[in-house]
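For homework, think about our next protein:
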Amino acid sequence: MRTASDPSAPMVLSWRTRDLTDQMTYLIKLLRHYCQVGREYYWNQAALIYLEDSQGRQLEGLLRTGNIRCRQEDANNYIRRDTIRAAPELNAVTLVKAIIVKGTEYPNVFIPFCTDTLWPGNNDPNHMRRMLYCAMTRAENTVHFLYHEENYRNEPVLGSTRYHQKVEGSPFLKEMNEPHFVLHARNTLDNGED
């Protein structure tokens, strides 16, 4: 993929966070940054593209808690009106599942939960790569991948042994290494900066 944007400014940014809580906090900060013009927020400048229904519900709850208008799109591009609370309906962050996102573009796309456990997870890697490519090409200006790196620890139960599961960013992110195209960054929440 090539971008028509200024080659000195990356179009694709991947953000690594400590854990899922940090990822959600940082997502809100990024949305506010990219949707604010002066003192106004133009929420329709952003779309959140997710993989699973449970993630859509989690993101919708997150946005409501952050007082950010959102609208959920289904396979027929029907917008669930109950997520917006009347006019202005068009000034809302779009929530859309990756499998149905074809054909629509958004100024700024955010793809949270972009970990190896989902992209590709136990699914066919070629299929998942194509689906992620489709999701990221919905962006007119920038696309942001958010993922967390975390160790899960299960305590022994009935004599079983403890094990760790490392969660990392999707291996597809490592395939995007073209200079001046992708910016891989760690968020600044660790030291309290914006």
User: Anything to note?
Assistant: The two ends are 30 Å apart (CA to CA). Helices lie at 20-35, 53-65, 125-136, 171-174. The CA atoms of residues 85 and 179 lie 43 Å apart. Confidence is low (pLDDT under 50) at residues 80-87, 188-194.
